[in-house]
Amino acid sequence: CAKKAKTPKDSSNELAVCRVLLADLEAHQDAWPFLSPVQHKSVPGYRKVIKKPMDFSTIKEKLTNNLYLNLENFIVDVNLVFDNCQRFNEDDSEIGRAGHRMRRFFDKRWTELLQFF
Ligand SMILES: Cn1cc(C(=O)NCCN)ccc1=O
What we know:
Layout: H1 8-27, H2 46-49, H3 56-64, H4 71-88, H5 94-114
Helix pairs in contact: 1-3, 4-5
The protein binds ligand D8Q.
Ligand D8Q binds at residues 32-34, 38, 43, 85, 88-89, 95.
């Protein structure tokens, strides 16, 4: 059967969900390591190890500039934040633990919202 054409309405709904999800992430008590770009000048080795830095403020900027076409593109960047964190930080560290808690929170939130699509 013919696939339902994605109407622009759909992506604007999805982008509204992205803004809600991002607000939830930023409001989380464990968000502090991820709110702004890692200052590679004060974090030795970061720029060498992490090829694609990402943080919540950069995601907000991209959302504001319409750089996400849909929920999927947005989720890719959020997961990049957590993957970078796991790569650079020990699991048993303040920031490493915050990353795992934030990823668990995010996975729960967007799967809850997914049921509406
Ligand atoms: C996500 N992340 C954050 C930091 C950091 O120092 N953030 C500033 C907190 N005020 C260092 C390494 C890292 O992977």
